[in-house]
UniProtKB/TrEMBL annotation:
Its main location: cytoplasm. This is Src 1 kinase-associated phosphoprotein. Residues 24-109 form the PH domain. GO terms for molecular function: kinase activity. It comes from Mytilus galloprovincialis (Mediterranean mussel).
Length: 109
């Protein structure tokens, strides 16, 4: 297992694992995640919560993790402004980490 590179230093000790190695998970499924580039495009990601760590991957069988962070470091904020679709407004939220420059904008698929 390798450690994450390019992630905030508070997550450097989270191992880079394939989906198959994450067993006994709390929750797993597809979420739409806003690209960090500022564009309004959303990417579908396979997401796994195990303990207090949120992992995300390209797909359900990915061998390489796209990223991970500790949920205990984050606050939850509703984000209805992420969509114009009234039916999806309540499904949009942000995970904000005050120790990172990154805010994860997510929608339940």
């Amino acid at each position: 297992m390798q450690s994450l590179s390019g992630m905030n230093t508070g997550n450097a000790d989270i191992p880079n694992v394939p989906v198959a190695e994450l067993t006994n998970v709390t929750k797993a499924g597809i979420l739409e995640k806003k690209k960090p580039t500022g564009l309004r495009t959303m990417q579908k990601r396979w997401c796994v919560v195990k303990g207090n760590i949120f992992y995300y991957f390209d797909g359900k069988t990915s061998k390489k993790m796209n990223g991970a962070f500790r949920l205990t470091d984050c606050s939850f904020e509703e984000a209805p402004e992420m969509t114009k679709d009234d039916k999806k407004k309540e499904l949009c939220f942000k995970l904000v980490n005050p120790t990172s420059t990154r805010t994860y904008e997510v929608s339940i698929f």
